[in-house]
Amino acid sequence: MKQMQLGAIAFCFAAFAANGLAQPTFSGDVVPIIQQKCQQCHRDGDVAPFAINGYDDMVTWSEDIARVLKAKIMPPWKPVAGHGTFKDAFNLTDAERNTMLSWISSGMPTGDLAAVPDITPPTGTWQLGDPDMVIQMPQVFDVPRTKDLYRCFVIPTDFDTNQFISAVQVVPGNRQIVHHVILYIDTTGNADKLDGKDGQPGYTCFGSAGDGIATTAGNILGGWVPGQRVRALPDGVAVALPPQARVVMQVHYYPGGKPGPDQTKVGLYFAKAPVERRLVFFPILQQKLNIQPGDANAVRSTSFQIPIFFDAKAITIAPHMHLLGRKISVDLESLDKKTTTPMIYIDDWDFNWQGFYNWTEPMALPAGSTIKLTCTYDNTTNNPKNPSNPLKLVNWGEGTEDEMCVAFVGVTFDNENLVKSIIPFNKQTGR
Ligand code: HEC
Predict the structure, then answer these.
(1) Where exactly does CATH 2.60.120.230 map onto the chain?
(2) pLDDT at 71 (0 to 100)
(3) Ligand 1 nearest-atom number relative to CA 69
(4) Whose CA is nearest to atom 15 of ligand 1?
């Protein structure tokens, strides 16, 4: 065994020498990678089980790191490269992965440690400075000892007119057990009716904000998954929070053996520049699912045509399925059907790592083009996440054992101009 390792090391040296490349060092090659691709989660008090604060931590965890890099399970970035380019992507390129692996297998040379005095990342609260307003779960919620728990909390707001929001930052009250958060907007009053019915703050919800709170255009405020950086919307674009709306905060807890209290809060950043266009979320969805027990490859799809005369831009996207989902892809087909542009593709869906992905540049959705959504499910016992045993027929629904096939696409319409009171789609968005 030892012999083989030495052989592998010798091979690495030879490979690097043959390429004329210097052997990777901690200071020169590894630090930038862990700062950009690991530390947003692997830092003190954050979601990952250990911090990578410097050289010693890398050495301590090197065996595990080599294993997860080879298996490509870390970092947990889901979109497949080549299907849309996203801001703040933390996937490793093959070159970065190889650099880390050869650094580990070649004995983890330090390089010039003096050149990297301290790489401990900041753990301060607000990424964009102090928010204009902070809202939070009205009460502390004592998260019980359990595996996964999805709960919605109702937070009242009392703006008299539309309040335009250009960024939100979710700050988990208890980072060790808060896994992800989605912020919905409710103007129906239904969230209030569900709140506290079981004697605890909030109510149980899984696939959405709960029964009767329609997933219609515009009812999402934002969301958060671990490692996500906060970004303000482009100048002139904002999400409208209607007067007296409720923010419904859906929190996924995974407390495992460490239950504890949580009171998650949200910083709201109001739009500073005049708002010309609203960001509205269009749910592209297929509700006819009918996924037969034993079907390992159930493919369901749907499409949505951008209305003629309304050129639009897509800024952000949140694909969504439940536990049987394996793959989800969204593509844009031109009006003449001659070109198809991939918007996003996830080939290894994980309900626990769902997020909002922002394209590096807003993506043009020309009038008349069609957004196509395809969801693939595995309803067999080979799917380790399948919640049903015995297997059962699965249809659309809110529950853990139901499924969904949705992509929430955050779009703006080019010809909307609130400053000049040009408001297309007012009926559709209910605003
Ligand atoms: C988006 C957050 C996030 C990022 C970025 C991230 N990790 Fe992790 N990491 C986690 C979480 C959470 C766990 C705990 C296991 C889980 O829930 O999947 C974990 C677990 C691990 C483990 C232990 C896994 C095991 O099976 O024991 C290693 C090793 C690891 N990460 C290394 C890395 C390295 C190296 C990077 C950067 C190249 C990285 N991670 C980037 C969140 C992250």
Answers:
(1) 278-429
(2) 94
(3) 35
(4) 48
Q: Evaluate whether the domain defined by 278-429 bears CATH number 2.60.120.200.
A: no
Q: Helix 2-19 vs helix 94-105: angle between axes, to the nearest 10 degrees?
A: 130
Structure tokens, 221: 């405020």
The Cα-based distances of 145 to 7, 179, 260, 420 in angstroms read: 48, 15, 8, 54
274 CA → ligand 1 middle, Å: 41
- Concatenating the DSSP letter of every residue in 61-129 gives THHHHHHHHHTT-SS---BPTTS--BTT--PPPHHHHHHHHHHHHTT-----GGGS---PPP--S-TTS
Per-residue pLDDT, 420 = 82
CATH class of 133-275: mainly beta
Whole-angstrom Cα distance, residue 212 to residue 200?
A: 20
- Residues with CB under 6 Å of ligand 1 are 37-38, 40-42, 47-49, 61, 64-65, 68, 74-76, 90, 92, 226-227
Does the pLDDT at position 430 exceed 90? no
Residue type, 265: K
Ligand 1: distance of its center to the CA of 77 in Å? 11
**Residue 336 clears pLDDT 70, i.e. is over it:** yes
Q: How far apart are CA 141 and CA 403, in angstroms?
A: 27
Atom of ligand 1 nearest to the CA of 227: 1
CATH 2.60.120.310, the chain: domain bounds: 133-275
Nearest C-alpha neighbor of 23 from the set 14, 32, 35: 14
The pTM for the full model equals 0.85
pLDDT of residue 21: 60
Q: What is the Cα–Cα distance from 371 to 411, expressed in whole angstroms?
A: 12
Q: Whose CA is nearest to atom 43 of ligand 1?
A: 41
Report the nearest-CA residue for atom 13 of ligand 1: 48
Residue 114 has pLDDT above 90, yes or no: no
Q: Which of 38, 40, 57, 353 to mutate to test the pocket of ligand 1 (most atoms within 8 A of CB)?
A: 38
Count CA within 13 A, CB hemisphere, residue 4. 1
Q: Which atom of ligand 1 lies closest to the CA of 37? A: 37
Give the tens place of pLDDT for each residue, 362-382: 999 999 999 999 999 999 999
154, containing H or E segment: strand 149-156
> If you measure from the C-alpha of residue 68 to the centroid of ligand 1, how many angstroms do you get, rounded to a whole number?
8
Q: Could you tell me if 226 and 264 are in contact, meaning their C-beta atoms sit under 8 angstroms apart?
A: no
